[in-house]
TrEMBL record:
This is DUF1508 domain-containing protein. Residues 61-105 form the DUF1508 domain. InterPro entries: DUF1508, YegP-like_sf. It comes from the Bacteria.
Length: 124
């Protein structure tokens, strides 16, 4: 199952990525001034993916990617794929899992895992 991950960019704005069930990034959103904007976009994508357009594109180096948009506004750009078939698989994964995707929020900047010296100190 896929997952939405909200995080903060270095400039203080927010973004989210949609990752595959294997943890690979499928697409990254545009920057948002507020975390709530990310949450609204995620809810719209999860609840109404069929209303969004997938525009397939290619790079000069022969890679493939898509842009996710609604009403002409691009909301996210995919990672680069080496073949058109893998691009289609990425889109199919979105269509299959996006409605059930969990949301993880790492935007508060808190480190999720304890420092290594704390982990080793408790196991000695």
């Amino acid at each position: 199952m896929g997952m939405f991950v909200i995080s903060k960019r270095y400039n203080g704005e927010y973004k989210f990525v949609f990752t595959s069930r294997k943890g690979k990034t499928i697409f990254t959103s545009i920057s948002c001034k507020q975390k709530s904007d990310c949450e609204v976009m995620i809810a719209a994508i999860r609840d109404n993916i069929e209303l969004f357009a997938f525009t397939k594109n290619g790079t000069a180096s022969g890679k493939y990617f898509f842009r996710l948009s609604k009403g002409g506004l691009v909301l996210a750009t995919s990672r680069k794929y080496s073949t058109e078939l893998s691009l289609k698989k990425g889109i199919n994964e979105i269509m299959k899992y996006v409605s059930r995707a969990e949301i993880l929020d790492f935007s508060d900047g808190a480190f999720v895992f304890p420092p290594a010296d704390e982990v080793f100190a408790t196991t000695e």
